[in-house]
Write a structure and sequence with these properties.
By secondary structure, this protein is α+β, with helices and mostly antiparallel strands. Helices cover 43% and strands 15% of the residues. The termini are far apart.
Length: 354
Amino acid sequence: MIESSEWLPLPLELEAITPDWLSAALSDGYPGTKVKSVAPDNINRGTSTSGRLNVEYSGASSLPRTLYVKGGFDAAMRRRVWVALAIEARFYSEIAPTLAARIPKAYFAGVDDEARQGIVILEDLAARGATFGHATRPIDAHAMARLLDLLADMHGQWWESPDLARIADGATPQRTFVKYLLRPKHWSDVLARPYGDLVTGPLRDPGFVARCLDHVWALNDHRSQTLIHGDTHAGNLYFEADGSPGLMDWQCAQKGHWAHDVMWLIVCGMETDERRRNEQALVRSYLRRLSDAGVAAPDFDEAWLAYRQNMIYGVACSVANPYDMQSETVTRISAERILAAVADLAVVDSLGLV
């Protein structure tokens, strides 16, 4: 992986992905690659800017004709989230090659600390018929069980691994950003959103939510640790033609507690009634799979408490998500689901701070 601009400067705009630059980037892993032309399309702008690259090579190449690029190609957003861009690039360079999980194949991953840029070039999943998760397409219990198997296998592989030291600081950027969402002016705007009336009791006070977050993070940091994806909402999932699930968007990969991933996946991915009918069985299924991976999994009561407590993260992150990072529709759906779960499972009571 490229760590600085000394060998290959990373472009700050999509238009700067030229045939010469792409040839050099791909040659890092595929020596001798020569790109004749490159044309980006299907551009998506959010936390990062991503899109498809239509590539024509000079001569024969084993590389595909379409690739998928992600990076900080918007100056304002790059300033806000560049650390997340670097986390994802380092994930694909250092962790992905050893990970027993279904994830996109990476052809290049680079970080330029001086320019504060991180870029990954990945396989174009759509080109082989994969479909993508979305908040408007809720996940049923059967598909959720398969996703939880995927998480359990990954968590089990990294459970209390000494290699976690390499990503020990990965949680800090996410936690800093989530606390930033609790600034009073933004929280007042959040309470004025269409779902604002669902934020009730002490949760209407952003200072109280911040205390809850600090409390649950302290609890998590003293529990068993593993590699977690960190942002397992539906938009970061994909499915093969046979329904096999995969995980993408590793900008929040970090050392952490399993319940963060499991809670976020179930609560944000399922319709509320479907969650209510199935979530205890799904958590038990996850724990069984974790045990099958050779891990001394927690018992159900301990796990269920951690699952409930971690939902406080969603009150800050999902409910207060900026509209320039997710659409109003996705934000509303996610917020309504998390707030229903917080009420159903007495999350505030589970934290013991009232």
